[in-house]
Amino acid sequence: MDLAFTPQDIAFRDEVKAFVKANLPQDIADKVAHGKHLVRDDHMRWQQALGRQGWLVYTWPKKHGGPGWTVTQRYIFENVCADMNAPGIIPFGSKMVGPVIYTFGNDEQKARFLPGIRESSVWWCQGYSEPGSGSDLASLRTRAVREGDHYVVNGSKTWNTMGHWADWIFCLVRTDASAKPQEGISFLLIDMKTPGITVKPIIMADGGHEVNEVFFDNVKVPVENLVGKEGEGWTYAKFLLANERLGIAAVPQSKRGVDTLKQIARNETADGKPLIEDQDFRNKLADLEIQVTALEYTELRALSAMAAGGAPGPEVSFLKIRGSEIQQRISELAVEAVGYYAMPYHPALLWHGANEEPIGPAYAHVAAPRYFNARKTTIYGGSNEIQRNVISKMVLGL
Amino acid sequence: MDLAFTPQDIAFRDEVKAFVKANLPQDIADKVAHGKHLVRDDHMRWQQALGRQGWLVYTWPKKHGGPGWTVTQRYIFENVCADMNAPGIIPFGSKMVGPVIYTFGNDEQKARFLPGIRESSVWWCQGYSEPGSGSDLASLRTRAVREGDHYVVNGSKTWNTMGHWADWIFCLVRTDASAKPQEGISFLLIDMKTPGITVKPIIMADGGHEVNEVFFDNVKVPVENLVGKEGEGWTYAKFLLANERLGIAAVPQSKRGVDTLKQIARNETADGKPLIEDQDFRNKLADLEIQVTALEYTELRALSAMAAGGAPGPEVSFLKIRGSEIQQRISELAVEAVGYYAMPYHPALLWHGANEEPIGPAYAHVAAPRYFNARKTTIYGGSNEIQRNVISKMVLGL
Amino acid sequence: MDLSYSDEQKQIKEGVERFVREQYAFETRRKIAATDRGWLPENWAKFAELGWLGMSFSEDDGGFGGGMVETAILMEAFGSGLVLEPYLPTVILGGGLLASGGSAAQKEALLAPMIGGEKQFAVAYVEKQSRYNLADVAVTAKKNGGGYALSGHKGVVYNAASADTIFVTARTAGGQRDEKGITVFAVDAKAKGITRRDYPTQDALRASEVTFDNVSAGADAVVGQVDNGLALFEGVIDRAIVALCAEAVGCMDALNKQTLEYIKTRKQFGVPIGKFQVLQHRMVDCFTNAQEARSMTLMATLKIDDADATTRKKAASGAKVQIGKSGKFVGQSAVQMHGGMGVTDELAVSHYFKRLTMIDTLFGSPQHHLTRYGNLSMAA
Amino acid sequence: MDLSYSDEQKQIKEGVERFVREQYAFETRRKIAATDRGWLPENWAKFAELGWLGMSFSEDDGGFGGGMVETAILMEAFGSGLVLEPYLPTVILGGGLLASGGSAAQKEALLAPMIGGEKQFAVAYVEKQSRYNLADVAVTAKKNGGGYALSGHKGVVYNAASADTIFVTARTAGGQRDEKGITVFAVDAKAKGITRRDYPTQDALRASEVTFDNVSAGADAVVGQVDNGLALFEGVIDRAIVALCAEAVGCMDALNKQTLEYIKTRKQFGVPIGKFQVLQHRMVDCFTNAQEARSMTLMATLKIDDADATTRKKAASGAKVQIGKSGKFVGQSAVQMHGGMGVTDELAVSHYFKRLTMIDTLFGSPQHHLTRYGNLSMAA
Fold first, then answer.
1. Across residues B20-36, what is the average pLDDT?
2. Closest chain C CA to residue D280
3. Is B14 helix (H, G, I), strand (E, B) or coil?
4. How far apart are CA C289 and CA B322, in angstroms?
5. What is the pLDDT of residues B146-199, one digit of tens each?
6. Hey, is the C-beta of A75 within 8 angstroms of any chain D C-beta?
7. Who's near C268: CB < 8 A, 6+ residues apart?
8. Tens digit of pLDDT for each residue in A196-215?
9. Above 70 in pLDDT, residue B366?
10. CA torsion sign, A262 to A268 to A269 to A270?
11. What is the pLDDT of residue B245?
């Protein structure tokens, strides 16, 4: 048992650092460091740089064009990227639909779709939830009716993240209305430019636009865009959600979040002293840092088990539970740290990157919007209540 | 709207103070002040003093021999008694079976049993829970079979508090096995000296003996000891439990508990300073005191609603929830306050009032046993989970 | 001891609840928030007409002789509808300063017209470094002939853009955090040397950064005593805290009502989600929290005029701690139980949550008041 | 980076788990606790025979060259069975002091026979006023010819009644809470001037109040350097904390196992109570808490020998905070989910709960270590 990195690991870490240093545009790193929102082009520039290096799909096996890294290498890569303020990789292509396609898709689909995902030349989005379905995914009602060599899709999807920037969407659709809820579901790939698709923004509590409702009105989808077998989409969906849950712990991001909080607490004052010297706030920071450390080592234990040949089991659900709770706690403490200057609402600066002097310290005006927005982390990807149900059933046998 | 006491209230408070000062034996007050356990005779001496004054059954209406006090007077009485370290009144007679008898019993029963309760010449105990029944009271299995002018009782009761000191027990028994669980239950009064009754101690986590299992082996109970109608015991039981819940908030006791904690924190030191000056511990005490205040004013609001003619509704369930959580928190902070000296276990001093020098400060060795014992407060009288179910159903309509 | 409302108080309650019901539907509020001012003069005129602006001032001051109980009734209803009109800065803070510290002349010139609805106030006390310490005052008021010249910066001044008069805490003596040497000034919002940067707040109210550059104020602009303004100011803030707690209670009850309704109707896995025990118990805890918030607010309402200063301060701080704890639990739970819809701008729930979050900070965080309470309560 | 056990470590794990399974059934433990000593010499002999007493000491010191990983394996198993034998005071504390500070002569005279199972140790460092501050030492050691004379009182000294040697922190210079001026002495437990008051602890272990009245100790009784004993002592306590955390992890897993079994079988309202969602989620949180405790203990196990002192201290304090939080949640939840049975002496659950409660305090409360961690981590 040993925490130390091997010389190869250390060489690898240096290689990653050098790459990020050379290839991450400064303007993007600055935005990330100051918690500003990125535009589509920011994500694309970084992801395409990773793509050229073959690292964008860093979790993929060699034979599908991934680097075939060890668990330790993935861990190093994720941490270096976060430390150096690289944007998080948008998961819909590389972490979600990609693995589904190379695991369940046919050779033609692999040849057609995987390169665009590896290079990030194509932006993917997700069509899972529907209005009213919430955590009960299997209740979805979007229909796909076979007509000759097409499916005709009607219905709507919601909580569609960044769909307004997407080229393609992967959708769960109902191809057999007569079957049981979890049967009769199929997994379709749909070009967002297809006639009959409209994207309607959902404005979040923080005033931002990151998710949409997507409406399908007699959208014609070629049958060759069906992944795997008709009616087995639920199997692929669960496979995808399991992958999603693992990364969702967001440990490197939370570690960076704690460092940012410390910086804020050094800047802020209370009774003439730096806030970080305030006993109560220091306790809260220390408690939070310990929570993040516990989560990190829990994830390391899971990764090391996977490295020893195991697949991510249902226990990773609690990485999602704790990871999301911790992200919320970080955002909550930021609001506490900035005091009255959490109150000004500055949409021009927040959303449109306007070149204005912020009201109060630059880190202050983002605190409350992030706190409001972070409430979603215990809701999406299967609410934490659902996650607890899963563990209770699958792990504890209750 | 006004918190101030009327001149009559103030005169009443002075009268109660004078009475307690004159009639509460000093040795008993000292035991209570130092958290020592009382013996039967201690309780009896105090309760009989109250009985002679007509105050033991202070919640009873005049026509049954109570003082017929206002809600405000009850509040004053309870607080003065707690402040002056009077022992809590054992509820089984005066607060439980008494009201059942004068509400549902016949005149003969009232004449026979109420005087002994008013004077505390008779010690009552409760026969409700059974091994395995837990919070599911209606599942009780103790049978009472009518044979001529007697019932023959067979079965067992558990969590019987102080039954080893009791003269009489009130029992829920099943008189009709064929009826639905909540029907076919009757309410019997049984003389503990009746042949066939055996009392077996249950030792608690703190090493103390306060509860028992009571076994009934062909115990003959005269039919005139049946309260109300056969098969309607469940109605009387619920009536009794509602009364129980109200007092269970134990606000005056918790207020005294916080004061005791403050005294401990003034005595204890951390890094050479009194513990009460330690920022973290002071925060915890302040938070606790605020919790107690919130509970007190919630109870005052309920009492004032009752005074305006309302009966205690299901919302009093949450007085039980918060009251018990607060009692546990007090005991938990006491353990934290005394540090290493929570560790010595001193049964001779704790249970048998041995005349030994305590190990560490006198208040220290009782801290952990009380913390262990206080875990029961969220379990008995219907666990807090059950209480939340009740509120959810009865108050929120869920 | 009597905790029931008088008939007059019941009438006030019914009146303000009717106003909120009829004038403050959620979509109406959205429109009001989008106006330039961020609130409606028609509503303010109605407040004056119904006597709400003078409700808690003595008859001598031109008010109707009510007290904190009446104020709490109004604020609770305002909270239940997320009312945007600047009652807190104008009536509770500005009016409160005048009532407890103002001269006869100041009352006549400012308080009377405020009660009549013709004047709006703002109170400038926050500074970039001050956090919640009311004595941390860097803005200076230098003697200047018969009067003073104010210079420095104040932050997050609610209602400054609409205010006719701005009340400012300034340092006339002593070091930056000395309790002595603070004076409260009432200055004309249009006075030369005052510059503002206006902005909306997270909870759809309006505030400003206000800079004072040699703003001259006459000796008659001093509210209360020179150098001894802190006690006056702290007392007004403590009363404002109780009013704010009442507003928060209104928010929480409204939020719980909406959440309960939602989990009774919203179906998942074929049943209303309110059938899931975990949500039932969380809903119970939401109600318990709101009840405790109401109880502590009642306690503070009845003790804020106590003869003993420590009792008053403990009452305000204790209530603020409870409101913070309850507000956070109720707000976060409401969002969680609403699921995805709870984090959208579309439903009212996120707006109540945002208001409760700002209330948590306003006049001092729960942590600040827990420490204050502890120091007051544990002093040997 | 490799978080898996070696084959040797797996064998140790199987061995100690078998011992607990076969020798520590709950009723057996009850009998052991009731003996005069409170532990079994036969068991201790077996510990020696199996090499557990020398497990974590270097070969030079007569040990088997294991480290904290091996220690954690043993302690976790001991925790799972609430093992009563004094491994912590004798091996971890006493042995640890000798290993990191002892002279060759002391190691030969004390460590070797301890590893052989012939010597028992106790460590006296708690004082009535000291709470968790290891530098708060009022017991004095005055120069006395070539040696020292120790006087004062130490409290809650585990295993003192069985100990052959008592290690004592005493002040040889400086003021009562100075970090400098503390010296560690190894004194014969039977030495003249030592009086004991023995008692059981809440968790069925044995401890004593120990008074030193001019107890003479030779210069050769000094462990480590005169006046510089604090760093040595603190380092040993930090290692003991990690061992204690491993014990706590064993307790929590055993408790969760029992509780899960109980709620699967215990029926109310006609169904196993484990069918109630609220208990399901609480059980999930119990497991999550135990997982986090295990993760933090692993972290500390692997970092406690780090070259950097701050890293070591943070590791120990961080783990202690987590164990405190998790242990309290798991312990209280286990009792609650067991209902009435959980608060009786009859079931094992209350005994695990009591041990976890004492672990919470031992070597410093979670609050103490949270503050320590914060000061180490937030220093600019």
1. 92
2. C278
3. helix
4. 10
5. 999 999 999 999 999 999 999 999 999 999 988 888 889 999 999 999 999 999
6. yes
7. A134, A135, A136, A139
8. 999 999 999 999 999 999 99
9. yes
10. negative
11. 63
pLDDT tens digit sequence for A12-59: 999 999 999 999 999 999 989 887 889 999 999 999 999 999 999 999
Chain C residues with beta carbon closer than 8 angstroms to that of A264: none
For C131, the token pair is: 């956090």
Predicted local confidence at residue D46, as pLDDT: 98
| Model confidence pLDDT, tens digit, residues D114-157 | 999 999 999 999 999 999 999 999 999 999 999 999 999 999 99
Q: Considering only CB atoms, which chain C residues are within 8 Å of D276?
A: 277
* Residues contacting C49, CB < 8 A, separation 6+: C117
- Mean pLDDT in residue range B24-51: 93
Tell me whether C271 touches chain D (CB under 8 Å). Answer: no
B149 φ, ψ (degrees, to nearest 5): -95, 20
Token pair in block for residue D73 = 């394996």
Whole-Å CA distances, B310 to B62, B318, D78: 19, 17, 57
SS3 state of residue A269: strand
Hey, how many other C-beta atoms are within 10 angstroms of the C-beta on C14? 12
pLDDT digits (tens, 9 = 90+) for A213-238: 999 999 999 999 999 999 999 999 98
Q: CB neighbours of C81 closer than 8 A, spacing ≥ 6?
A: C20, C21, C24, C29, C250, C254
What is residue A311's three-state secondary structure? Answer: coil
Q: What is the DSSP string of C346-363?
A: SSHHHHHHHHHHHHHHTT
Distance CA B374, CA B325 (A): 9
The whole-angstrom distance between B247's CA and the closest CA on chain D is 21
Residues 299-328 of D with CB under 8 A from A: 299, 301-303, 318, 321-322
Closest chain B residue to A279, measured at CA: B279
Neighbours of chain D (3+ CB pairs under 8 A): A, B, C
Q: Which chains touch A (3 or more CB pairs under 8 A)?
A: B, C, D
Pairing between β-strand B150-161 and β-strand B143-147 as defined by DSSP bridges: antiparallel
Neighbours of B26 (CB within 10 A): 8
Does residue B210 belong to the interface with chain D, where contact is any CB pair within 8 Å? Answer: no
CB-CB contact of C223 with C186 (8 Å): yes
C-alpha A111: how far from chain center:
25
Tens digit of each residue's pLDDT (9 = 90 or more) over A110-146: 999 999 999 999 999 999 999 877 777 788 899 999 9
User: Can you give the pLDDT at residue B259?
Assistant: 95
Q: Which residues of B touch D155 (CB under 8 A)?
A: 340-341, 360
Minimal CA separation from C337 to chain B, in Å: 14
Strand partners of residue D155: D126
Per DSSP bridges, beta strands D165-171 and D206-217 are unpaired
- The residue in chain A having the minimum alpha-carbon distance to the alpha carbon of residue C176 is A272
Most C CBs within 10 Å: which of B266, B283, B290, B389, as the mutation test of the C interface?
B290
Residue at B92: amino acid letter = F
- Tell me how far apart the alpha carbons of residues C350 and A359 are, in angstroms, rounded to a whole number: 23
Inter-chain contact D287–A75, Cβ cutoff 8 Å?
no
Q: Closest partner residue to D342 among B346, B360, B375, by Cβ?
A: B375
Q: Is the pLDDT of residue B135 over 80?
A: no
Q: Is D285 in the C-facing interface, judged by CB distances under 8 Å?
A: no
Statement: the pTM of the whole predicted model exceeds 0.90 = yes
ipTM greater than cut 0.85: yes
Q: Count how many Cα atoms sit within 13 Å of the Cα of residue C182 in the half-sphere of its side chain.
A: 22
pLDDT averaged over every residue in chain C: 97
The residue among B330, B325, B319 whose CA lies nearest residue B297 is B319
Tokens of B379: 């379990």
- pLDDT of D14 reads 98
List CB contacts (< 8 A) between B342 and chain D.
Answer: 202, 358, 361
